[in-house]
Design goal:
Distance between the termini: 57 Å
Strand content: 15-25%
Oligomer: single chain
Largest sheet: 7 strands, parallel
Number of domains: 2
Helix content: 25-40%
Strand order of the largest sheet: 9-12-13-14-15-16-19
Shape: globular
CATH architecture of the largest domain: Alpha-Beta Barrel
Number of strands: 19
CATH superfamily of the largest domain: Aldolase class I
Number of helices: 14
CATH topology of the largest domain: TIM Barrel
């Protein structure tokens, strides 16, 4: 007699009313935008987990409700009308309370199967797990944990205390090449017309404000160049995507590896596809950018964060004043190179960071006036659990710092505030055609 195939429902919960919950943002710790029209990454984590389960013989279905602007009634109806053995919910830090309420709502439904919580934010759940509405909690990256502990998904918790499972070691997948390609056929195409690829995870730099290393670790874990190229080709051949977005924190950290990747992407008879990436400014050099452009890269993103020398040191972005000068010169050089070779360059800034003052804001504004970037994104600092930087937000008592925020561009409300960019930069953008400031 054949054993019945197990059915697993994977859910990215709805966004809280009037917002966009980009749970994939900040390496899965999440970003919450104060509008239903906010930016969303495709549901990479759930698509990857679904692929692992499929490989093990499970049947998976993904409900990416954040992009649908759906209500909790939809999964309730699906749970009641279909036979599910397990429900997996992706939880982020910035939506933790909402996501737990969503899980509690499902748990009260008649016929709801065991519930599992996944996502980097599971590490930040309260120590007393008795009130957590779940049967299983996966700590760390779920792919390795599910390779060995997937049968736990089918089990109810005892006495209302969730079972904790994690992969080997600290819960980070050591061999990223072993993870199957995400099950993108289960995820609706995003409005951005792109899909995501991780060529590496983690970062060995020590920027004090950065939460990515909390989720992905403080060392670079890189896939082989061949496996990345094969995945890009697979995406181009099987899905209607206009471009690929590499989600690596520091895509260009290993110069030789990027050169090898570009050379393979340039080989004849390969499907042409555009791509974009992000890295630390010191990772890019003009010759590398030129090669990347030839290989299909249309946009790079890099964090300037601030142009104030003391803050760059305090935030551990650089080590010395001389390094800060090199850093700022490199950003200017990259902007010039991108303009020359026809590559978009998006510059990231941060506001509300501990130590930020009117003086540091003015230093950044003066620098922007000199380098004249074409695209700027401004993010508000959020003290995600585990980051090394602590302290009060940038001079909250000095209204002059925050009165300079651009009213037409609302930043994410990941720290509970709606923030926007500087009036001075708005004046600059009106003076120069083609400059766009957004968040």
């Amino acid at each position: 007699m054949n054993k019945r195939r197990r059915n697993v429902l994977l859910i990215n919960p709805p966004s809280p009313e009037g917002t966009t919950a980009n749970r994939e943002g900040v390496a899965g710790l999440g970003v919450l935008y104060p509008s239903p029209e906010g930016f969303l990454y495709p549901a990479h984590t759930l698509a990857s987990v679904a692929s692992v389960l499929r490989q093990a013989g499970y049947r998976a279905m993904v409900l990416d409700m954040a992009s649908w602007q759906a209500t909790p009634l939809l999964p309730a109806r699906i749970i009641k009308t279909q036979n599910w053995d397990s429900v997996i919910i992706f939880m982020s830090h910035v939506t933790m309370e909402y996501d737990l309420e969503f899980a509690r709502f499902l748990r009260q439904l008649s016929g709801c199967p065991p519930i599992t919580l996944v996502g980097p934010a599971t590490r930040n759940l309260p120590p007393d797990l008795g009130g957590v509405p779940a049967d299983t909690i996966i700590l760390g990256e779920p792919e390795d944990a599910l390779s060995e502990g997937r049968d736990q998904l089918l089990s109810w918790s005892e006495k209302g205390i969730p079972v904790i499972i994690r992969g080997p070691g600290c819960g980070l997948v050591e061999e990223l090449d072993t993870i199957p390609y995400p099950a993108w056929d289960l995820v609706p195409s995003g409005k951005g017309g792109f899909l995501t690829v991780f060529g590496s995870k983690g970062c060995d730099r020590r920027c004090g404000y950065c939460p990515y290393v909390i989720a992905q670790g403080d060392r670079l874990r890189a896939r082989s160049v061949d496996s990345i190229v094969e995945e890009v080709d697979w995406l181009a051949e099987n899905f209607p995507v206009r471009r690929v977005m590499f989600r690596d924190i520091v895509f260009a950290r290993d110069d030789e590896r990027v050169v090898a990747l570009c050379e393979k992407l340039l080989k004849p008879k390969r499907p042409a596809i555009q791509w974009e990436c992000e890295s630390h400014p010191l990772d890019f050099r003009p010759e590398l950018l030129t090669l990347m452009r030839r290989a299909g890269c249309v946009e790079i993103k890099m964090g300037l964060e601030t142009a104030h020398v003391d803050l760059l040191q305090r935030w551990s972005r650089v080590g010395t004043p001389d390094e800060a000068g090199i850093y700022l010169d490199r950003v200017a050089s990259i902007l010039q190179t991108c303009s020359r070779i026809g590559m978009r360059c998006r510059l990231f800034l941060m506001v509300g960071v501990p130590g930020q003052t009117q003086e540091s804001v003015q230093a950044t504004l003066s620098y922007l006036s000199s380098v004249r970037p074409r695209m700027v994104s401004v993010k508000t600092f959020h003290p995600y659990p585990g980051i090394s930087m602590t302290g009060d937000p940038g001079d909250p008592g000095d209204a002059s710092v925050f009165s300079q925020l651009l009213q037409s561009c609302q930043a994410p409300v990941s720290n509970g505030q709606s923030m926007s960019f500087f009036h001075s930069f708005l004046r600059l953008s009106r003076q120069r055609r083609g400059v766009r400031a957004n968040v």
